[in-house]
Design a protein that fits this description.
about 230 residues, alpha+beta, Glutaredoxin, Glutathione S-transferase Yfyf (Class Pi), Chain A, domain 2, 4-stranded mixed beta sheet, 11 helices, globular, Glutathione-S-Trfase_C_sf, transferase
Length: about 230
């Protein structure tokens, strides 16, 4: 029980998926507990009484909430062993400035990119606000591609914190294209190539949701919010 790890999550959540990827990268064994949007479990409500949402990491019965906080907790709790650095890498950079930049862009993903994504399925297609959401989404993706630059990963040559933060959203690119009417590969080819590179990692390949299922989930959300 002292080392028991449980992740309260939802299959399609990009925020939960980043936690799953981080745990896989660290080689941490854990129990996955699927949660429901419609009928939230007592365990979830007790574990995250403030926001009442996934993901929540339970470590030895103690809850850690909010995915970016969870990522840092995972990174600090399971540091790389000297002889296993390649198998259990540190996610956040060791340099303070690089660490600050990674946190800045992680915040950008959660505030800007997710906001654009949410507006795409909340707003009615053809409305002025929806058209603005489409432009904002294209701009946000372009901004992230500019930050990636010519590097293999956001941290340079090594897969790291910001890659873990952003890569679950790659599974949503198909939904963006269907809802916004643009081809992500045409406006952000390097970002798409980065996503394919990331999917070459077992931690990512085994975690990301089928894009078609993500799109079906986005349509469910559109119907729920009356934006059909």
């Amino acid at each position: 029980m002292a080392d028991e790890v449980v992740l309260l999550d939802l299959w399609v959540s990009p925020f939960g998926q980043r936690c799953r990827i981080a745990l896989a990268e660290k080689g941490v064994e854990y129990e996955y507990s699927e949660q429901s949007l419609a009928d939230k479990s007592d365990l979830l409500l007790r574990s995250n009484p403030v926001h009442k949402k996934v993901p929540v990491l339970l470590h030895a019965g103690r809850p850690v909430c909010e995915s970016l906080v969870i990522l840092e907790y995972i990174d600090e709790t399971w540091p790389p062993e000297p002889e296993k650095k390649k198998e259990s890498p540190r996610l956040l950079p060791s340099d303070p400035y690089a660490r600050a930049r990674a946190r800045f862009w992680a915040d950008y993903v959660d505030k800007k990119l997710f906001d654009c994504q949410t507006r795409l399925w909340k707003l009615r297609a053809g409305d002025a606000a929806h058209e603005q959401a489409k432009r904002d989404m294209a701009e946000a993706l372009g901004t992230l591609e500019a930050e990636l630059g010519e590097g293999d990963y956001f941290g340079g040559e090594a897969f790291g914190y910001l890659d873990v933060v952003l890569v679950p959203f790659v599974a949503w690119f198909h939904a963006y294209e269907r809802l916004a009417g643009f081809a992500v590969a045409e406006i952000c080819p390097r970002l798409v190539a980065w996503g394919e590179r990331c999917k070459g990692r077992d931690s990512v390949a085994k975690t990301l949701t089928d894009p078609e299922k993500v799109y079906e989930f986005a349509l469910y959300l559109k119907a729920k919010f009356g934006a059909k």
